[in-house]
Every structure is written in C-alpha cells, then in structure tokens.
Amino acid sequence: MSPTALSAPAASAWNDHLVVLPVVLPIAVAGVMFLLDERRRRLKAALSLATVLALLGIALVLVGRVDAGAQVYRLGNWAAPYGIVLVVDRLSALMLALAGVLGLCALVFSFARWGQAGPRFHGLFLLLLMGVNGAFLTGDLFNLFVFFEVMLAASYGLVLHGSGEVRIRAGLGYIAVNLVASLFFLVGVSLIYGTMGTLNMADLARRLAAPASGEQALFEVGCAVLGLAFLIKCSAWPLGFWLPTTYAAASAPAAAVLAILSKVGIYVVVRLSLLLFGSGSSAGFGQTWILAAGLATMAYGTIGILAARDLTRAAGYAVMISSGTLLATLGTGSGGALAGALYYLFGSTLAAGALFLLAEILQRGRDPARADQPVFADEYRDPFDDAGATEVGRALPAAVALLGIGVLLCTLMLAGIPPLAGFVGKLAMFTGLAAGPITAPAWWLIAALTLSSFGTLMPLVRLGIRNLWVPSDDPPPVLRPTEFAALAGLLAACLALALWGGPALAYADATVRWLEQPQDYVRAVLGAAWEGVRP
Amino acid sequence: MEIVLSLGIGVFAASGIWLMLRPRTFQVVLGISLLSYAVNLFIFAMGRLTVGAPPVLGAGAEVVSVDDPVPQALVLTALVIGFALTALFLVVLLAARGVTGSDHVDGREPHQAEPHPGHPHP
Asked: Given A165, A189, A199, which is nearest B100 (Cβ)?
C-alpha cells in the first residue's frame, strides 16, 4: 500500500506543519543542548528561552486556529487508523498554551539560580516539555505511552536536579511509583488492542458506536486498568500519596513545571471519557468511580493542606485539590460545570506553579527545622506576654511587599475568592451544576467545592503571615529580577484570565461542546470515507 | 502452549509483585524487572499465539496464516523504554545507598529514628 493511496488529498500549506512543531522543536533543541559544553550557560539559556517562547507562540496560534474543529496532522502522510496522527482541537490547544505559559515562567525563574545547580537542566527541561506537548497532541494510545515515558524520564532527572538526600529519597519513591504505573498503562493498552484491534482513539470511538461485541467486558477491564495508570499520574486518592513529598523535594522551577504533569493525567481522563464513553455501547463507563475518586482527592487534599507546615507542601496539596475538582466535575456528567472546571484548571495550575516559586524564595536560607514546630505554636504562649518584644516598626523591604502581593494573589486564586479567576471558575461550576435539576452527586460536589475553598484559604493565609509578617532573625528574602519576572508573568496570566473571563469561559464552553460531539472528532481524524462503516 | 505462557506470565507477575513489596531497594528493582517481563509477555499474547506464521508478508506470498505484527512492535518499544528506565532507577538506587548509607526503601534502617531534615545523616 502506498501512502498516497491511503491519504486524502490535503492542501499542504506551511502552517499545517505547526501542529508537529511543539514536539519536534523542543527535542531538536534538546539534542543540541546535550552537545554543548556545560560552561556555555548564556548560550544554553538563550537557546532554551527562544525555544520556549516559540512554543508558547505556536500554542497561541493553534488556540486561534482550532475554531473550526480539529486539525489533523498525519505523520509520514499515512492515513489513520494505519498511521499515527497528531490531532489538535480546542482542548489540546488549551493545554498546550498552559504548558507554554508555565514552562516559560519556570524557565525564566531558573536563570537566577537553579539552572546552574546541576548539569543538563535545560536539555531535560525541553525534553519534559516535548513529552507533555506530545501527550496533548497525540491521537493514538501507544504513542501516548511513548510521550508519557519521555515526559516521565525527563521528570525523574528534574526531580533529582540539585541533588541532596531529600531529593534522592523522594525521587526513589517517585520513580518506583511511576514505573509501576507505566506497567498498568501497558496492560491496559494491550487489552484494548487485543479486544478492539486498534489503538487509534478515533477508530476506537467509531468501533464503540457499533453494538456491543462479546469482548466488551474485557475491553472495559482494559480501560479500567488504563484509567488506573492515569489516576496515579494525576494523583487521585488513594493513588497520589507520592505527589506532595516529591513536589516539595524538587527544586522550585522543576516543581512549578511538574504541576502541569499531573494535569496530563487529567487531560487524558477527560479526553478518553468523553470520546469513548460519552455514547455508544459503553456509555457512562467508570463515571461513578471518577466522581468518587475526585471527591476523595478533594477531601484528602483539603485535609493535607490544612496540616501543611510549609508553603511547598501546601502548593503540592493545592495541585491535588485542583486535580480532584476536575475529576469530580467530570464524574457528575454536567457539561456546563466541566467548562467551569477547565477554566479553573488553567488558573489553578498557574497559581500552584507560582506558589512553588514563591515558597522557594521565602524559605530559602531558613532553617528547615522550623517546619517542625507545631501548627499553632502561639497557643502555647501567653499572647499578652510581650514584655521582651521591642515595639519598633520594622521597615518592610520592597521584595517582601512584592512577595506578599504574590502570596495574596495565589491564595485568592487557589481558594476561589473574588475577584480573581478562581472565583469565576467556581461560580461557573456552581451555575453549571444548578442548570438542571440538582442531582445527589452535584450536591456532593457543591459541598466539596465550598469546603475545599475554605480549607485552602485558612492554611495559605496562615503560612503567608508566618513567612512574611512574623519577625524573625532570618535575613529578609532576596528577589532577583529574573525571579520577579517569572512570578510577575504567572500572576499576570492569572489576572488576565480574570480580566478576559468572558472570552476564556466562552472558549471553555465551546471546548466542552466539541468534546461532547465525539463523532466530529472521529470524522476529522478518519475522514468522511469511514463514516458509517462498521467493523 | 497457552497454558505454558499463562503460567509463565503468572509466575513472573507473582514473584515480581512479592519482590516489589520487599523493603530493600535492590529487591524492588528486581521485582519491577520481573513484573515488566510479565507485562511484555502479556502484550505479546494479546496478538494471539500462532506458530510459524509470518508477521510481514512479501509480494506474492501465499496467505495461510498471518501473525499480527503490531503487538510485536509494541513489545519492542516497551522493552527498550523499560530497559532504559530500569537502568536509571539503578543509578538513583546507588545514589540513595551512597547518600543515606542504607539500602532500605525509606532511606534508613527500620529501627533508626527519622533523620533530621536539616542535618546530614551519620
């Protein structure tokens, strides 16, 4: 069979190749990066900055281009389902943009200190972005596995970046958990191939539209095992105990960019649930489990953040809460609420990334033993016994003021307090849930959303006060220009999300409406010739 | 042949899981390796078991029985990735052994107290 016989004639404009660039560009530059001497820091920094800026630009162009539906890129021009395809639709473009913003800011932050803390930081960073972008773009389950592994291999290096006992111990657990998760992934993929005979997502959706076959049960077992792998990655309870420890141990820019990693798991769960189980012979498969896992993750994250003694751990639990929110919303099956949750996901991931960066600046140079003191240390003192304290006002350095504003914005975003995007997202979720008759799961989710807001607000305010206002002998934090630029970028993105909330929510709404029409996705990938053809 | 293969997968998986849950890091590595053998054989079996059937047909070949080449390609990819990541895990394991002075997965012997995060381990 020749490629031309299989593929539909396609107009080959240069900008059709934009779809493959988010994968090809970072891996090519990463290859060059490993050849360059470690001492050429400026060149490496400039190269990776240019690459990540280009990635963000491409992502934004793709966001603008996908209005019509999905754009399909056939690798080697072999038609699906025989060849491998990359598909960009609204959801993929949204996630690419999120990875671009977060990657850019984490990279700029690393210029100040962390880029020099160990060898090959820039190469690993770009490989991680390549894996993440590939996972968002691929339309094939096995290719998804390959991109996942690239992303994870790079993340192992980044978690260990900077070395030290705490990182190595956390890394050991992280790698072991993810190796096992990858085995689940493989078992799931092979079961799906064995029962359905295809790994192309669109082809799977097409075959599922047919009446159930005898192997339906085995197929669903495969999907459940596959889902287990993704739930481990997005740290759903009880599979996510590794997350707070690992993220707290990782260096700040690595932790910030790892915040997107757990969202890759969420992305795949959303994509596959709506594509394969929206309708057809397995409709609604696993929905109750996703709802239960989401609610449990929110509860676990909230309890964890209440008990967190330092900001990095709190940020790790905030990542868990945001994952749980999206899972639970998906589990309720309400489209309007899912649009709000996607909007919330974008904002909360940026805010959690910013919180990792802020935490590192505030806790840098402090004695880590102080994290062991009781949560309510002041309860053990007489509040009026301040005879020894000097009532001299302390000058507030500009750095502390800026960091204070940063902590405040992150807190408002993550807790969902007006006027920032976190509140808009939660409001959209409430409105979506209340659109029809409110079901029991919707009540559960409303309660969990409200409680997790409150549970996030309290510890973040407490940690902010402790880190910024409590007088201490520690030297005041130093804020370098690049670190400020990175933080300002992330927080400006959060503010922009609130200011242009209307268009952003409309985009999220259109994304969900597109996802709820899987036949359009199938038609875009397989072409009209396959429509109505039953296997 | 089916019974031999399924018994093999079962034995590999069972010993892999048992070893993975052991407290020493080297046992964990061996466990993950055995488990990945089981998974690779499982992927292979998902292409159905045939004897003497070619996976790739040449021009003018007589089609009597064909083997599915896709699971074989999947196994190859999974093998390479699994091999590389096991090597990486071994390096991290050695680093952990060197830094913490213990090959326990917790980084300390069970009877020892939690080492203080700020201070180097004795």
From this structure: A165
